[in-house]
Specification:
12 strands, 14% strand, alpha/beta
Amino acid sequence: MSLALLVPGGTGQLGHELAAAAPAGADVRAPGSAELDITNAGAVVEAVKTLAGTATQPPVVINAAAYTAVDAAETDADRAFAVNADGPRVLAAACSAHGVPLIQVSTDYVFPGDADRPYRTDEKLGPRSVYGMTKAVGEEAVLGSGARAWVVRTAWVYGAHGKNFVKTMARLAASGEPLSVVDDQRGSPTWARDLAVGLLELAGLVAAGKEPPTVLHATGGGDTTWCGFARGVFEELGEDPARVRPAVTSDYPRPAPRPAYSVLSDGEWRTAGLTPLRPWREALTAAFAEDGDTYRP
């Protein structure tokens, strides 16, 4: 199905991929924050109104705009709440007023990270960082807005655009020195391109009037630690993965606490008939095959 898409945060890591992966014939509007600041209520309302009034195809908003500086949020809480909570609230209200479906992208950080099995979508939230709190409030605002709205939580996202873990590891690999990476935090690396394809599949469903579960999880299949992820990056670079040594979180204190366990169950995603994202290690190989030069320093 062809769509009319509005993608706030369209110049970011995920937004780039959403615009690139949109189906042929789709009308895609993917403004960056300079063009559409979701903390500007007037601009948000006007953008959704324009989408609803001019679209010749079924309109859907996918919100890829977010404040993602996890450590900075600890001392920049007002800005983090403005982008991650107030922005989605205004966006959802505008979507409700104009009958436009909304897909809000969220994060594993809304959970406390102390589980020993994949988090289900209906489990109690318990964010331990300001960033996680802002995203949890954003979820609540969207789901309580009266709009046809969905929340999709993801984790450990990397891609060809912007800064991310894969690019950092590639830069460190080029130094030729051993490095230590935490091995006591577990999650599921997620290629932004695979996530974008999944979100667009969901957008097609909701545009067609389907009603999948309102909260879904979409991450790369399987799980690993940051150390295991780093070793995968080294393998793709043709470097010796043994250069990556395991460390513990306490060796690298950070302003914001990190979840020790961030694996998310995709049971609801599968139940909705959506295509599961491919296994994380397979996706990493594909990412280097597609965009290898962008990951290397």
